[in-house]
Amino acid sequence: NRECLKNALSMIAVLVVVLGFYALIDFNGFWIQFHELVFTNDLWLLDPSRDRLIMMVPEPFFKGLVHRIILSLGGILTVCISIYYWLDRRVKRYDSRRTV
Questions:
Q1: Buried b / exposed e across 36-65, counting CB within 10 Å, b at 16+?
Q2: What angle do CA 68, 29, 54 make, to 5 degrees?
Q3: Rounded distance, CA 42 to CA 35, Å?
């Protein structure tokens, strides 16, 4: 059903926008919430003075990575929505010709 696809694309777009703003406004809060949602233990909590991962890959790397992922998702979603509306217009035009 075209309406279901439209609603799904709209909800995904809203989710990506909300997550993007959350990551942009409060990255630390976003990062903590993400890890608490994904992991069932606290092993993701690393000590910057002791853990090599944090020494080699600092916070700006992760912040940039998350922003690139969200921008990529937004771009892919924009393409999907554009294709949806283009195809929807074509189907409506085709249906209007068939009924005449």
A1: eeeeeeeeeeeeeeeeeeeeeeeeeeebee
A2: 65
A3: 9
Burial group, residue 10, by CB count within 10 angstroms (0-12, 13-18, 19+): exposed
The pTM of the full predicted model, rounded to 2 decimals, is 0.80
Are the C-beta atoms of residues 85 and 78 closer than 8 Å to each other? no
Q: Using an 8 Å Cβ cutoff, are 17 and 85 in contact? A: no
pLDDT tens digits for range 25-83: 999 999 999 999 999 998 889 888 999 988 899 889 999 999 999 999 999 999 999 99
Contact 70, 25 (CB under 8 A): no
Collapsing DSSP states into helix, strand and coil, what is residue 86? helix
**Distance between CA atoms of residues 61 and 96, nearest Å:** 52
- The label of the residue with tokens 């991962």 reads 53
